[in-house]
Amino acid sequence: MAKCTLCPRRCGADREVRPGVCGVRSEMRVAGIMLHHWEEPCLSGNVEDGRGSGAVFFTGCPLHCVFCQNGGISDGGNAGKAYAPRELADAMLDLQNRGAYNINLVSPTQFTDGIIEAVAIARPRLTIPVVWNTGGYERAETVRRLDGTVDVYLTDFKYGSERTGRLYANAPDYAAEAAPALAEMFRQTGAPVYDDFPDKDTVDHPSRRLRRGVILRHLVLPGERLDSVSVLRTVAETVPSRDVILALMRQYTPDFAPADREKFPHLGRRVTSFEYESVLREAIRLGFDGFTQEKKSAAASFTPEFARKTPAPSSK
User: Fold this and answer.
1) N or C: which end of the chain has fewer CB within 10 A?
2) Distance between CA atoms of 205 and 23, rounded to whole angstroms?
3) In whole angstroms, what is the distance from residue 87 CA to residue 121 CA?
């Protein structure tokens, strides 16, 4: 962790001594471990089945978007509980024993080294896929190290220009870094691979489980439909549009708008149907397949609660 360069910030912090731009030191910190029901259906299944995705929410984040819905943990600090790699491996196996469909590593980049070690420990007994759930601000070199560790990439592609990357995350290089990282993710996984299911054409059937592949998420922001179109075109130029699963989201809510309303006046409202549907039309034109969201998804109630006590690692 001396002179950390895991993420595109390349902040050079000695994270054994002080936090990096991600807000955390080298010790893995976990803000929550739970069976999570609000990912895409091919990861979470039905809410009614009592199972879900085995989510591990890590503390800290390299990106720090101004409208972050997980700000309480993404800012870093001492939020959550410290986990050694072996403890994290035990927690993964415990999630598997509880019926998780996968191990869903949320905002993991800042702990890449410890996670690789933990998965290696758990792998001999782990029979479910490992999901790398990231904001997309990744270095291709770091993603390359995950080959053999990760089965499914659940990645955002948030911003399509230097302007939006700088405005919303102080990351004007976001698109320039996210595109080659996405290409490396796809190189590792290829087209989606599912559990056997009789209706192969029903991508959103809740009984269809993704075993390998890339899910590409994009959140349409109010006032930024043209940037969303730019994102989709960049993605289609980077990977085969038919071979990634697009999750086109409309869940932005002003509940998480930044306090500076003069700088971000458009973030004080939800996305309009016109904005979302115009981006959706472009996605269809480009040949994407995947998931859309209903208007009612723009609600703070869909945000996970992190105040609950993090379960202790299993000794199994």
Assistant:
1) C
2) 38
3) 10
> What does the pLDDT look like over 102-124, one tens digit per residue?
999 999 999 999 999 999 999 99
Give the up-direction half-sphere exposure of residue 145: CA atoms within 13 A in the CB hemisphere: 16
- Give which of 186, 16, 211 is closest to 114, Cα–Cα: 16
Distance CA 142, CA 253 (A): 32
Q: Which residue has the tokens 């149907």?
A: 273
The secondary structure element, H or E, covering residue 131 is strand 130-134
Spatial CA neighbour of 186 closest among 248, 227, 136: 136
pTM across the whole model: 0.91
Structure-token pair, residue 209: 């489980």
DSSP-based three-state secondary structure for 225: helix
Q: Give strand ranges (E) for 152-288.
A: 152-156, 193-194, 210-219, 245-249
Q: Report yes or no: 183 and 122 within 8 Å, Cβ to Cβ.
A: no
Q: What is the pLDDT of residue 50?
A: 81
Burial class (CB in 10 A: 0-12, 13-18, 19+), 84: middle
Rounded (to 5) percent helix, strand, coil in the chain? 35, 15, 45
Name the most confidently modeled range: 74-83, 174-183, 305-314. Answer: 174-183
